[in-house]
Amino acid sequence: MATKHVNDGGTVLERQEAKLKPPAMYQVFLLNDDYTPMEFVVAVIQQYFNKDRETATQIMLKVHRDGKGMCGVYPKDIASTKVELVLTHARKAGHPLQCVMEEA
Fold first, then answer.
1. In the chain, at which residue ranges do the beta strands (DSSP E only) sit?
2. Residue 2 and residue 15 in contact, taking contact as beta carbons nearer than 8 Å
3. Per-residue pLDDT tens for 11-64?
4. Any idea what DSSP says for residue 34?
5. Could you give all domains of the chain from N- to C-terminal order, each with its CATH number?
6. Is the pLDDT score of 9 beyond 70?
7. Rounded to an integer, what distance in angstroms lies between the CA atom of residue 11 and that of residue 58?
8. Phi, psi torsion values for 2, nearest 5 degrees
9. At what angle do helices 38-49 and 53-66 cross, to 10 degrees?
């Protein structure tokens, strides 16, 4: 909404308030595979998504049972960074673990 102000010189100044909308959020998921050890998945969730062991285990079991488990919801740049960190860590460890992001 524009606000009008009159200064001493009789000039009307308009100021438009910036309308900021929140950034788009993305869900980060781990995908199931038949080769990555469950304990490795739990460790990844704890390390990269800051979850306690119990929560990480619950997410890992969801990945195992349902094929996919959500690890968190983040702005796009943070979600993308987490996906890349997880994929790099898994490859270095020799595991085919997949991590993806989807718009929330």
1. 2-6, 12-16, 25-31, 68-75, 98-103
2. yes
3. 766 777 888 999 999 999 999 999 999 999 999 999 999 999 999 999 999 999
4. S
5. 22-103 (3.30.1390.10)
6. no
7. 64
8. -85, 145
9. 130
